[in-house]
Amino acid sequence: MDLPGKIIVSSPEWLPGLLGGFAVFLLILVWSYRGTGISFGRRITCILLKGSAVALLVLCLLEPQWTQQKPEAGANYYAVVADNSQSMSIFDPGLNRSRGEEMTKLLVTEPGLWRDTLDDMFQVRKYGIDSRLHGLKDFSELTFDGGASALGSALHQLGSRFRDQPLAGILLVSDGNATDADLDQLDLADLPPVYPVVIGSKESSRDVSITSMSLSQTAFEDAPVTLTADISSIGFAGREVEARLFAADFSKPTFNEGAKIDEPSSSIEGQAPIDSLIKGISSDQETLAFRFQFRPEQTGVSFYRLEVSVVADSLAGDESTEEATMANNRRLAIVDRDSEPHRILYVAGRPNWEYKFLNRSLDEDDQVQLVGLIRIAKKSPKFEFKGRQGETSNPLYRGFRQKR
After folding, report:
1. How far is Cα 43 from Cα 52, in angstroms, rounded to an integer?
2. Which of the residue ranges 113-117, 128-132, 337-341 would you say has the lowest mean pLDDT?
3. Collapsing DSSP states into helix, strand and coil, what is residue 349?
């Protein structure tokens, strides 16, 4: 890969004199054609031809040279980074192969002359990006099953990894869907030149996805858990989207055919959902908010899976619900509810009636356990149920006059 060249003058000390002499020659040449009786057009032609000849002579005396820098073969590094996230398995509209297959064609099956030139000039290092940056022996190792596209952190990691080494540039092949940063606002000042190659169509694909999900719960087991989710819809205006909440159980060994090993049995066909909601879509790009409330059946850690899908239209057929990918239609939620009761420590300096009524009111509540600690100072009389000989009242009432 050649760098831009430039023209240098071997004898720059002659430049002022030659330019001055050339200017004087042009003045004399123009003056000499005055009053010769030749037509104006022929005079201009003669002046241009003689001036061009003298200009070429001046240029030869300056001895100009064209110089261009070429990197020494193998002296510098070059990083080729390929996106390995699940978004590369999306089929763009009008194409019969996925983004990952397009990348494979570019990097593996049909590398072309650019790959050969790159290998001849640089020490090429191959990397894949999903949730982290990892090295590759060959781009045929890409599986396009990563759960994220950490493009921003991966670029900065490459910059720090090659900080003291001659890294000529970074070739980034991706669909541009970064999950850790906005690429338009990414700071690339400390990085070598980054050359992005975008894979995929600019046209938006029809898709429904869970963009965010959050859980809200209290410290008491009887209170319901609130799950809120934002569902993004693209290209399904006038249709309906359904969100279903299932109970997930990792202890069961039953899995769907083709499911990943970390998927619980919540996606078994025929399992009844805990709750389901259906909302209509009014525009081509819209975000819908869903809210579920439920009570876990058991204490401890429980898993729940939220699944979204487009409601099938009997008139349009099943093809009307096809999406770009189904990988973003499910998400797992974890609920942790303590199995032990919440203990309350009641500390007092002497017996009183408040503890009696508090203990009585919380006695039937299995989620709260009240423990009392009574500490009486040393100088105070020790609590006794029986007083001194001859006393008919509790010793705690000594010193109080009885009202008659």
Report:
1. 14
2. 337-341
3. coil
Determine the topology of domain 77-198 in CATH. Rossmann fold (3.40.50)
Contact between residue 254 and residue 266 where contact means Cβ atoms under 8 Å apart: no
pLDDT in tens, 301-324: 888 999 998 888 766 555 567 777
Q: Quick check: 52 pLDDT over 80?
A: yes
pLDDT at 290 (0 to 100): 93
Query: Per mean pLDDT, which range of 206-215, 296-305, 359-368, 394-403 is the poorest?
Result: 394-403
CA distance 175 to 200: 6
125 against 187, higher pLDDT = 125
Structure tokens belonging to residue 323: 């999406």
pLDDT at 265: 42
Fold equal for 77-198 and 207-337: no
Separation of alpha carbons 19 and 15, rounded Å: 6
One-letter amino acid of 170 = I
The CATH number corresponding to 207-337 among 3.40.50.300, 2.60.40.10, 3.40.50.2300, 3.40.640.10 equals 2.60.40.10
| Cα 312 to Cα 318: distance, rounded to the nearest angstrom | 6
Q: Which residue has the tokens 């609130």?
A: 226
Query: Which structure tokens are listed for 263?
Result: 């998927």
DSSP 140-193: GG----BS---HHHHHHHHHHHTTTS-EEEEEEEE-S--SSS-GGG---TTS--
Between CA 42 and CA 48 the distance in angstroms is 10
> What average pLDDT does range 129-147 have in this prediction?
88
